From TrEMBL:
This is DNA-3-methyladenine glycosylase II. Its cofactor is Zn(2+). Keywords: Activator, DNA damage, DNA repair, DNA-binding, Metal-binding, Methyltransferase, Transcription, Transcription regulation, Transferase, Zinc. It catalyses: Hydrolysis of alkylated DNA, releasing 3-methyladenine, 3-methylguanine, 7-methylguanine and 7-methyladenine. It comes from Chondromyces crocatus. Its EC number is 3.2.2.21. It is an enzyme of class 3 (hydrolase).
């Protein structure tokens, strides 16, 4: 679509990755028929006029007279309706020649959640592109990983998103570069490589073409406050759709933080990080001035900022649509009170799926505190020291390969029953050997039986892992004692039946049920 073309109408369709019920019908399809909203151009313009944060990241608005595209929450003067064109993604707006607004910064807009309108293949491809796969791999490599041909992947992405994989990757790289230029003091050459460009020359040329000025000009123009100019660290900003129940999210993570590797103190989450061969640390705190989280990262992680950002968005569930979820769950009398008391409640994800799964197994049949102690022992015994620790955090959680090579007696010596030790080793060996995948954007229907086939993994653990490591919004550990207690002490079978109307967001219902109990039980 060119600038003079008729604006494209956005339509929210059922996500093909949704769980299927016994009659073969997807739960999300049922939800779509009951509650989906078609975002035509007039609806988008009304959302733009209201600067409605619920639509942030759902669409972008391009203005024909300025050649600029913005988020719907941009504080600039609202353009006339006849000058607006609406796009589902920043990449398609840029493909048509529009440049990103330097005021609302479209590169910071929240992404789409699992129940949004993308088929499974495209969603999985986008997730890997967001995490930087194409910075080193090719489109054919990505397609092979997803089990299709390169031609099929290109066609699918063109059909769904209107851009090719390369165009989307280029948009993501330039967006990260623009963010680093405005929010950090990194040299331009380091920004180019940290954003996934193979050369500074290529970075400069593409930036000039896309934004109408060279990177050096933007660096000179920007005004960075002292808070964001921390020498010796990297600063990132991750936006979300408000509201966000930050305190409840931190409370959940604090109780499960692995000693030596994670910590929550005074409203700040900190942890050690291993991404491939790169190691370092990060701290995360809420930005009191905007709907965003502020990340500080060790300089050693500069070349891993794309996967780092993707993992943090998953950990804090930043791409959720909280108002839509609350509207759906709040209709149930059992959840109405908890939903009202905790606006913006998220499902805590996992920075590392393997780490979270091992932590879940350690939590079987013991208290949260006891499981945390065991996790700390495991990290101290089999993990690696961080080269440059931060405030007492100096342990890197063991890799699947390291645990897979461990002896059962060594694992059991941490204070574990032999059956629990065998379960941990089975998980490590399955992940290391590739027989089980904890791909956050994979198929939960395939992952759940594969997990349950491992010794020591039952339905509860599998669904808990699906909630957090796999990011499945409809996971439901029906056998969880706390869930059943909050539902009136009913059986697991009755809980499953009772939770049917909560689809496709049963995982969020579980979080509301857990937080409704004063003891904070649940995983």
């Amino acid at each position: 679509m060119g600038r003079d073309a008729t604006p494209w109408a956005l339509t929210c369709r059922a996500h093909e990755a949704a769980p299927r019920s016994e009659n073969g019908q997807t739960a999300t399809a049922r939800f779509a028929r009951n509650a989906a909203v078609t975002l035509d151009d007039d609806t988008c313009y009304r959302a733009l006029t209201a600067r409605d944060g619920r639509f942030d990241g759902v669409f972008f608005v391009a203005v024909s007279t300025t050649g600029i595209y913005c988020r719907p929450v941009c504080r600039a003067r609202t353009p006339g309706r006849e000058r607006c064109a609406f796009y589902r993604s920043a990449a398609t707006a840029e493909r048509d020649g529009y440049r990103a607004c330097f005021r609302c910064r479209p590169e910071l807009a929240p992404g789409a959640g699992l129940v949004d309108a993308l088929p499974r293949l495209v969603a999985r491809a986008v997730a890997r592109i967001d995490a930087g796969f194409l910075n080193e791999g090719s489109v054919d490599d990505l397609a092979a990983l997803l089990g299709v041909t390169g031609r099929h992947l290109r066609r699918a992405m063109e059909t769904e998103l209107g851009v090719s994989p390369i165009e989307l990757a280029q948009t993501r790289r330039l967006a990260l570069a623009k963010q680093l230029l405005q929010d950090t003091s990194l040299p331009l050459s380091e920004i180019a490589f940290a954003s996934g460009f193979a050369s500074v020359r290529r970075f400069n040329a593409l930036f000039q073409t896309r934004f109408g000025r060279p990177p050096s000009a933007l660096r000179r123009e920007r005004a960075v406050g002292s808070q964001e100019r921390n020498e010796g660290t990297l600063v990132l900003r991750l936006d979300y759709r408000p509201p966000l129940d930050w305190s409840t999210l931190l409370t959940f993570l604090a109780g499960r933080a692995i000693p030596g590797a994670e910590r929550v103190t005074d409203g700040v989450y900190a942890r050690t990080v291993r991404l491939g061969d790169l190691t370092g640390w990060i701290t995360v705190q809420h930005d009191e001035k905007r709907a965003a989280l502020r990340i500080e990262a060790a300089p050693s992680l500069a070349d891993a900022l794309m996967p780092l950002s993707a993992r943090l968005r998953a950990l804090f569930d930043l791409d959720a649509h909280p108002t839509a979820i609350a509207a759906h769950l709040g209709r149930d009398p059992l959840l109405a009170g908890p939903v009202a008391r905790h606006p913006g409640l998220r499902v805590p994800g996992a920075f590392d799926g393997f780490e979270m799964t091992i932590r879940a197994v350690l939590g079987q049949q013991v208290s949260v505190r006891a499981a945390t102690t065991l996790a700390g022992r495991l990290a101290a015994r089999f993990g690696d020291p961080l080269t440059v620790p931060i405030d007492g955090l100096g342990l890197l959680f063991p890799t699947p390969a390291r645990l897979a090579a461990a002896a059962e007696d060594d694992v059991a010596s941490l204070g574990l029953p032999a059956t629990r030790a065998r379960a941990i080793l089975a998980i490590a060996r399955a992940i290391h050997g590739g027989t089980v995948s904890l791909d956050r954007h994979g198929d939960p229907e395939a992952a759940l039986p594969a997990l349950c086939a491992l010794p020591g993994i039952g339905d509860w653990t599998a669904h808990y892992v699906a909630m957090r490591a796999l990011g499945w919004p409809d996971a439901f550990p029906s056998g969880d004692l706390a869930v059943r207690k909050a539902m009136g002490g009913i059986t697991a079978r009755a809980a499953t039946t009772r939770a049917e109307p909560w689809r496709p967001w049963r995982a969020y219902a579980v979080m509301h049920l857990w937080t409704s109990l004063s003891d904070g039980a649940g995983g």
